[in-house]
Amino acid sequence: MSHAFPAAVAARDAGALIDTLAPDVTLHSAVTKVPFQGRDVVADTYRSVIESFDELRIVEEFEGDGTIAFFWEGRMGGRFVAGADRVRLNADGKVHEITVTGRPLSGLATLLAEIGFRLARRRRGDRAARVLRVTSKPLPSLLSAVDPLARWITR
Fold first, then answer.
1. Domains: count for the chain
2. Read out DSSP for 35-63?
3. C or N: which end of the chain has fewer Cβ atoms within 10 Å?
């Protein structure tokens, strides 16, 4: 790995990952249009990410001109999820912007259910976490029904 950020993701090392973040870092999530701004919020988000994955690996990485991009895949809540992160660095080599994309839709719903629950608990307490858990829990199962339908349609 060429930069410490994807290496920390692959190692699931929250401390090392947080050390790469600029104070004014912004995270653009795959599941909400609301950006996560500031080192404290993004650090809490990545702590929740690392706690949520059952397994995670970087499958490919690219770097050029102050930008890193890497593809990852893993399992979370028993479901496959894959994605790509675009990471922009500031002049000091610190991460100042992250954009995350993911697939399949059931995997994104799992990201919301698993990471969202942990982040809500960490930032707003058990009550907010329970509300998020109850409202997001059925989404991965519902959306995974698209996969057999897509196989049938494309035959």
1. 1
2. PEESHHHHHHHHHHHHHHEEEEEEEEEEE
3. C
Looking up residue 37, the CATH number of its domain turns out to be 3.10.450.50
Long-range Cβ pairs for the range 140-143 (8 Å, 24+): 140/77, 140/79, 140/106, 140/107, 140/109, 140/110, 140/113, 141/106, 142/109, 143/104, 143/105, 143/106, 143/109
Which residues, including other chains, have CB under 8 Å from residue 93's CB and lie 6 or more apart? 3
DSSP element (H, E) containing 21: strand 21-28
How far apart, in whole angstroms, are the C-alpha atoms of residue 103 and residue 30?
9
Which tens digit of pLDDT belongs to each residue from 31-56?
999 999 999 999 999 999 999 999 99
Domain extent at residue 140: 4-153
Which pLDDT tens digit goes with each residue over 94-147? 999 999 999 999 999 999 999 999 999 999 999 999 999 999 999 999 999 888
- Count Cβ neighbours within 10 Å for each residue of 50-69 and write b for 16 or more, e otherwise: bebbeebebeebeeeeeebb
